[in-house]
Amino acid sequence: xxxxxxxxxxxxxxxxxxxxxxxxxxxxxxxxxxxxxxxxxxxxxxxxxxxxxxxxxxxxxxxxxxxxxxxxxxxxxxxxxxxxxxxxxxxxxxxxxxxxxxxxxxxxxxxxxxxxxxxxxxxxxxxxxxxxxxxxxxxxxxxxxxxxxxxxxxxxxxxxxxxxxxxxxxxxxxxxxxxxxxxxxxxxxxxxxxxxxxxxxxxxxxxxxxxxxxxxxxxxxxxxxxxxxxxxxxxxxxxxxxxxxxxxxxxxxxxxxxxxxxxxxxxxxxxxxxxxxxxxxxxxxxxxxxxxxxxxxxxxxxxxxxxxx
Length: 309
Ligand code: NAD
Prior knowledge:
globular, 5-stranded parallel β-sheet, 36% helix, 309 residues
């Protein structure tokens, strides 16, 4: 019987359907998704034919020890925690689940934008402490939203922005022409996207080319009073530079679902800033998205073995 290890914490969290899919297809399923220790992970993985991986790193040491491993199925989109050179070297097939969680992430990006614009989390925290402050925010209607990366999630955010009568700019060097549906979006250079944004929302994968993409210089190129939203990956926006820019009063605030270190470091300076709203990497954590992603990640494993038989 083939064995699958699942390290994603959210796999099958909202229904038994994805687990049943695997067991009905004859797989034995093991979970390692509570407290993560590399050594224990390697030991668990060593007897497995397949891995459904969450956010943990897949190192060469783990891959080398997993002599039966044939397929790694990412429970989500971003493959930045998987060393693709290593999986290629060991002839391990890698799959992911593109697009299935795009609406959920776009909802969160948009809610973070509204939150920092109208300071809702800040105001709510004050009210819960017995205060009643008349906090003044800014409109998003009529403002410019620059999207850095115009893939699945960037497009979903653009659709929402249209409903809020925003001007939408998109910077994506790999896109030369936009589909007709997005005739309300203007393709922009990086400089135009930065310089015109009232809100800048980041939707690129984390790679060596995008790490630190938004740092001191880019923040300085943006307008005073602009906001940063990051639901892609920690490390794309430099946290130290963001803190400095907010403290100087240049950047007005930030909504972050992803951090350079997750979970957040105790005593993080970001967490002390009233202008910053932080969520615990829950972009794809809607009931609908979790179930769809889990089903597709499970199906990817099943299909791999069906095709290779
Ligand atoms: P996608 O592959 O559909 O789109 C990414 C886009 O970024 C592509 O159009 C690509 O051309 C563009 N791009 C690449 N490098 C760029 C650069 N240097 N500058 C500008 N554009 C660049 O991916 P997606 O589904 O839209 O997801 C985007 C990212 O969101 C993922 O890679 C992942 O890291 C992150 N994500 C986060 C969560 C979460 O829970 N917060 C969930 C899903 C995905």
